[in-house]
Write a structure and sequence with these properties.
Chain lengths: ~260, ~250, ~575
Amino acid sequence: MSAALRVTLLLVLIGCVYLFLAQPYWFPAGASAQSSLFDHQFWIALWVLGGMFVAGHLVLAFVLSKKPRAAAIASRGSWQLEVTWTLAIVAIFFWFNISGERLWSSMMLHQQQAGEIQIEVTGAQFQWYFRYPGPDGVFGRTDAQKFAKADEGNPLGLDPSDPAGRDDVVTTAMIVPVGHLVQMRLRAQDVVHSLYIPAMRFKQDTVPGMAILSHFTPTKTGVYEIACAELCGIGHYRMRAVVRVVSEEEFARWLKAQVKNTSE
Amino acid sequence: MPIIGDRVEIERKPKLGGGGPGKIGHRRGYGGGDDGDHGRPGDFRSREQRMRRYRIGMTLCIISVTAIFVLLTVVYVVRMGNGRFDQDTRRWVYDWIPLRLPYLQLWANSLLLLLSSATLELARRSMARKEEFAAMGILPPRMKRDLPWLGITVLLGFCFLAGQVLVWNNLRHQGVFLASNPSRSLFYILTGTHAVHLVGGLFALLYAAAGRLLEARFESQSIVVEVTGWYWHYLGFLWFGIFALVHFAKG
Amino acid sequence: MQMPSPNSILHEQAGFLRRHVFNTDHKVIGRQYFFLSLAAVLVGAWLSLLMRIHLVWPKAAIPFLGEIKPENYLAQLTMHGTLMVFFVLSTVPQAGFGTFFLPLQLGASKMAFPRLTAAGFWTALVSFLVLIAAFFVPGGAAGAGWTQYPPLSALASAGPGEGLGTDLWLVSIGLFCLASLMSAVGFVATTVRYRAPGMTWMRMPLTCWAWFVTSILILLAFSILLVALAMLMMDRHAGTSFFVPGGLLVSGKAVEHSGGSALLWQHLFWFFGHPEVYIAILPAMGVTSHLLSVFARKPVFGYKAMVGATLAIGALGFMVWGHHMFASGMNPYAGFAFSSLTTAIAVPSAIKTFNWVATLYGGRICYATPLLFSAGFVSLFITGGLTGPLLAQPALDVYLHDTYFVVAHFHLIMAMASLFAIFSATYFWFPKMFGRMMNERLGRLHFWITLLGAYATFMPMHLLGIAGHPRRYSDLTGVQYVSAMAPLQRFITLAAIVTIAGQVIFLVNLFWSMRRGPGADANPWQCSTLEWTLPSPAPAEGFGGRQPLVHHGPYEYGLLGAVEKDFVMQDAPATWSDNGPSE
């Protein structure tokens, strides 16, 4: 029984390690400035914690060995050992914890950049809306309860009396120019949603009643999927959208065309 | 056949072990534990033991109730200070409407609750006295100034509750409804939760008072009265805490 | 001498009502909790099976239910989580085994407030029935997940399960809070007042320590949940706005609330919810510490460090709730604080793991089923625990939050690890509870299937999470990169079906052994704690008039150097000193 248990533990160990080395499914290729930092941090995590996982199971398999023994080694413990492994684990865990703080700051603390793109993201059951302020750079007032009519092309409830809102562009796909900081204001119209762009290593809940500022910088052109990551009702699984990262010129062209459409 | 061999490594001075092997002789005799419990082994029915047990139970209840009110207080204070930046109008919005309290009524209720605490203490003392006589097998003599304190406490408790209902009615007539503003909701929920807990205390006191009619043992009654007393005084303290909160933190 | 308690005389000829309903015998209540949890775990496992099948064969028609629609799926996942977290993981290790064995291990014949303990069970039962009833109301059971984030859970218009189903959910969990509070008061009072003479704090078995600390967590955490539930209920029906902000537009209709904060609920819920995780795992840790010592025939390594770690986990458990909310839009600086505190709580957990391994080291290990499951617990605890520091790091957590990575993490550490402790406790204490032994051969078979099944089911989920698969998706076709993960999902479903099918072996073993198993001796495992001084099954009168006098610590194994009887009962005469037997 002892041998069987040890063999099983080792099999489990090998299986798990194989899964993480073979990586049949893994991160999508990163496409934002923070994705390489994130991937690096994740590798640190994988090596540190994966190493502890392997070591832990090897030790466990070792102590479960059944050498013929007349009696157990009757040790009640040792403060030296307790202190040693406590300090060791404190050192490892806190070093690891602190190693990730800089990434967290770069992700969360407000950043500014010349030429940044302003987008307001609104989650509604079960659709994402993206709003660009237009040439005036100012978002118009909205009041979803008064003016929102999705079937009349005003899902966010733009106030028609506000001139700042006339040139606002509302889309269901996020179009951003490559290399520019995308400054987002995240809102929700009904329940909590979560804007999840795996390729950008980006996730932020959108909470009704709050306007959360967040940002990322796309570095590769292409089309990337957006999913909703906070349970928001029966259509949660299909609350999908895309980010289209395009060249600067294409973005300018697209925005111009949109503004023209909107003001007509 | 015991094998005592060189494999056995017994630490002579276990520092980490659970209690270690038997230490000969218990410093407190076998009277138990390390909590100064000197009763006969197995004697869980003595008054002393029951009283301690119920006190612990009541302490635990009070801890739980404290958690509830600390939480509500935190919610109150945080909600009061929380404005939100309205992106559309580009202004900070403070939607907390300060409370206007009917102070006269509240002070009257406070007085009632204070009095009830005092009468409950008198009830406890009178019961303890009677219990001493009962333990000696003597019918307790009728004391001159021995009013039915327990009954009076229950009555005062009901008066307090009625007073609270009047406060709520008064506020409703002023158009201050549960749903009209967070400050209102939290005022109602604070005072309402307090009232619900007070009703619990009233039931316990009624149970003790009914015990007198049912000729139950003095012992059980006096334990109920004493332990409920803790709870009752605590609720009085809590009431003044709530009062202070809604007075000083109006927003 | 005391007379035998009237309870024991009456018990045999007492009627059904007296024996099962108005009963205050903690052993009966413990068994009742055990069967309540068994019912809950069967329903919960059935729901998980339905969900797994629906995910990979969405068109499959389930007998009697037909095709599963998204709202059914959400109701199933909510009820699965609720049943498993509340009625299984917080019920059987604590209220089930605890109610049965806490007094016995302390040398008491009953709980401190027997009627309160009994009332706790009946409240829990009513709560369970109310929860199950939600399946049969219009709109079905609640569908906002066991975390019930408002505004989804606060507005009946937000989804089909958000009507009566959610009301019933709130009532049920409110009742469950009351039940847990009643039970916990009895636990703490019993531990403080009913320890037998000589049973000092440092001679309590680690199971008792775990039950004691867990009870204190329950007293604080469940009263807070109770308030939060009441507030949510008022938001739903009294027009208040604690959790619902203004200006919402749900299903095309304006919502009248204004001024609430959706994050407030998350704070309140997780302030309860994180201690709840430890409410589920601490008793499991206690059981594992206890059993490893028994089956390795060694004292627990570092008893005092274990007690200290238990207390540290209990205290820190209240300071880490924010790590569930890194992606919620709370202040990033709060993220720093919660991240460090969460890393701090990983330390006592690691200390416990080290001590378990050290307890096993050099032991004369007896590979009985309870030990196998305890070793499985340690393995799963390491595996599931090590993703903890990873998720405690906000930068990494944000990406993995609400993906299958988190599902894998908490299923391994909270669900599977606790479940392994529950299984080992069942195999271990079965003789004391039912007077018979469980079948070893079936027990081992059950262990192999469950261990491999648990890893096969939950390990691949990490990869799904890494690849960005959000959780709580009722369908894989909505998002393209998610639908690409269908093959792995299919593998997980197959593994889950095998694992759940393997539990039939346990059920057969359990019910067969209850009636036909070989009769058990008083002390079949050669344990030193006080419950084993009683005959099996534990008699109704407990220790009767005799109260044990405790002279020894709880884990005096392998110290005499003897092979036949290598342990010292806790109530053995105090003639045995530091220098060995004095005869």
